[in-house]
Amino acid sequence: MRLLRHLFAPSSRRLFPEDSLQRITEAIATGERQHRGEVMFAVESNLPPGAVVAGMEARDRAQDVFVRLRTWDTEANNGVLIYLLLADHRIEIVADRGLAGRVSDAEWAAVCRLIEQEMRAGHPEQAVIDGIRAVSDLLAMHWPQSDGQPDEDELPNRPHLLD
C-alpha cells in the first residue's frame, strides 16, 4: 500500500506553485529578522521505489535532506529544516545541535501538528507559513536578534522542491 502511495503521490509543484514558493520565501525571510537561526523548507512528493521497499522512513529521509541541503552549515549550529513527505503525509523537523536542550521534542511536535492541521484542511501554503512562523517564534526565544550583532543570512530562504 505504501509503495502505491509513493507511486501516485501528489505533485509538490502543483501544491506549491511559483507564487506560493515566493510567499514561503518571504515568510522565512520575515521570520529570520526576529532571530539568529536559519530556517529551511523542503518538500518531496515521494521516495524512489527502492527506498520505499527498503523501508526508508520520513524521519530518515529528512535527516538525509538536512545534510544534503547543508542546513547544519551555520556558525551557531542553529539551522532548522521543515520537511514534508507528501506520499506519507509526514512532517518532520530536524534541528541542528545548537538547539538541543533548548527546544523540546514536544515543542517541535506541536509545530508539526499545526502544519498537519492546515494541510488536512487543504491549505498547504498556509500550513507551511504557519509552521515557519511557529519555528521562528521558538528560535526567537532561544536565539533572538541582538542589537549590535549583525546577522548574516547563512542559508537560502527559497524552498526546495526535491522531485
TrEMBL record:
Domain TPM per the UniProt entry, residue ranges = 15-137
Q: Where is this region: Disordered?
A: 143-163
Q: What is this protein called?
A: TPM domain-containing protein
Q: Which InterPro entries match?
A: TPM_dom (IPR007621)
Gene3D superfamilies in UniProt: 3.10.310.50
